[in-house]
Specification:
- With 51 residues, this protein is α+β, with helices and mostly antiparallel strands.
- It has a single domain, classed as Single Sheet (Rubrerythrin, domain 2).
- It is 18% helix and 16% strand.
- The chain has 1 helix and 3 strands.
- A 3-stranded antiparallel β-sheet has the order 2-1-3, with no helix packed on it.
- The N and C termini lie far apart (33 Å).
Length: 51
Amino acid sequence: MRFHLRKCSSCGTYTLETECKKCNKQTVLCHPAKFSPDDKYARMRIAEKQN
């Protein structure tokens, strides 16, 4: 159940469905990626966050 929680990007409500009941938009997973010391994409994520 931990990775089934989703968030609607337009209205901000949390749900377990792939589509929001309020605004009928697609929902996205709201969990961060697992931490890895051998992160290959760390530079890209940091650069994207700074923009």
